[in-house]
């Protein structure tokens, strides 16, 4: 149990900035340690007739890697982000419209999917889109000795036989919204990681609250 | 009359069955569709298999080719899985470049292969930095009726167990590879990942092995891959409604029992081809 307390609930230094871009309806950057993602949200906007859904908005997510064109790896990440946003947004308020989330990777130093999800949530808040709950994401790495490291850097992720678990947690009941894992691990390790992620998510939700409070306290 | 109701109000139609704790095709909530497996269906491939889970039909062909090992892992061979969802299998898929579902499935299979240590990649290497095997695994869906990932993993597993690689020796004088087609040696499989799809409907009912209609009405999909030591190789839930801890544990337990059923099935099929020879 001492291994749990050592390096578990220590997230890297994180920060965010909102409303930096003028054209998107909402934008934000999210920085976790050295990993940095820039997110832009356009919505509710016009949607192509082939993609429109009669009673709800269509959510599209694009992840642009730092170098090269988006590939198969980006598609799986896009799927995870899209389904998480769809669960959080109140899409039935904007039928036959589209909500587009564009994520640009500025620097990847581990926990990329988590940073993408956090940046997406902040950008959706900045755009003022109605959501039923907020979400945040935490990545855990399990080393081959069984030690759990939260918010790993790229070097910690690359160590051989490290399992990586990324969870998206929602703000109302702290349940798991999204889970994406690589590597093999036992059921107990999974439960421990979920518990650690839920605890760390409280810090991130508090950060969301503080940053929004600070922002709106300036507006008279 | 029931057909009219099903088309007009599909969600209510399925809900009326779920209230009685069963599903529209008569299954229990935790029951899988009958699974049939056939191997060596493709004679031109080095290994192949075909699986049918209810109506969902997926075929896999394995071709082994010789190539130079990648520079960052000179003593290992590699596998290239590819999942193809042609317009044949469902009206949802249009012709053209692979759509998002196919790409996400390919990436998922590649991750499971790596996470579960399915094959010892060092065995695929013939000579360090010079020659190794690359296994191209082409998984094609012929009929899409839900639970695609489960079928893909079972068919990949069966095809790999069925695959036979020729023996390759490097002639020291000429430095060329000599392939002996006569001698074949099967691959050694380390772990047996078995996938298992759960599907969460609006009122938090969990059903197993959804059909395509049930999948479209669901609010979340969970896929759990376990291996024969009951360790988890993947817990894949791409968003959707939230899942509590006990429900997740319930799903994992069901996955572990399914693993045993599938490994028995695969074992039986492989044995039957051996005795047939």
Describe the structure.
The complex is a heterodimer of chains A (220) and B (277). Chain A is built from five helices and nine strands; from the N terminus they run αββββαβαββαββα. With 220 residues, chain A is an alpha+beta fold. Chain A has one domain: Ribosomal Protein S5, domain 2 (2-Layer Sandwich). In chain A, the strands form two sheets. Chain A has a five-stranded mixed beta sheet with strand order 1-2-3-5-4, with helices on one face. A four-stranded antiparallel beta sheet of chain A has the order 7-6-8-9, with helices on both faces. In chain A, strand 2 and strand 3 form a beta hairpin. The longest helix of chain A has 30 residues, at 187-216. Chain A starts with a helix and ends with a helix. With 277 residues, chain B is of the alpha+beta class. Chain B has one domain (31-276): Ribosomal Protein S5, domain 2 (2-Layer Sandwich), CATH 3.30.230.70. Helices cover 31% and strands 30% of the residues of chain B. Chain B is built from six helices and twelve strands. Chain B has helices spanning 2-8, 10-19, 100-115, 148-162, 212-217, 245-276; strands spanning 35-39, 47-53, 56-67, 78-84, 125-127, 131-143, 164-170, 177-186, 197-200, 206-208, 220-226, 232-236. In chain B, strands 1, 2, 3, 4, 5 and 6 form a six-stranded mixed beta sheet that branches. In chain B, strands 10-9-11-12 form a four-stranded antiparallel beta sheet. In chain B, strand 7 (164-170) and strand 8 (177-186) form a beta hairpin. In chain B, helix 1 (2-8) packs across helix 2 (10-19). Chain B is elongated and about 75 Å long. Chains A and B meet through helix 2, strand 8, strand 9 and helix 5 of A and helix 3, strand 12 and helix 6 of B.
The run of helices and strands of chain B is HHEEEEHEEHEEEEHEEH
Shape by Cα distribution of chain A = globular
Q: Output the strand order for the largest sheet of chain A.
A: 1-2-3-5-4
Helicity level of chain B, as a percent range?
A: 25-40%
Question: Structural class of the helices, strands and pairings of chain B?
Answer: alpha+beta
- State mean pLDDT of chain A (0 to 100 scale): 91
Quaternary organisation? heterodimer
Strand content of chain B: 25-35%
Gyration radius of chain A (Cα, Å) is 17 Å
Look at the structure and name the CATH superfamily of chain B: GHMP Kinase, N-terminal domain
Any idea of the CATH topology of chain B? Ribosomal Protein S5, domain 2
Largest pleated sheet of chain A: 5 strands, mixed
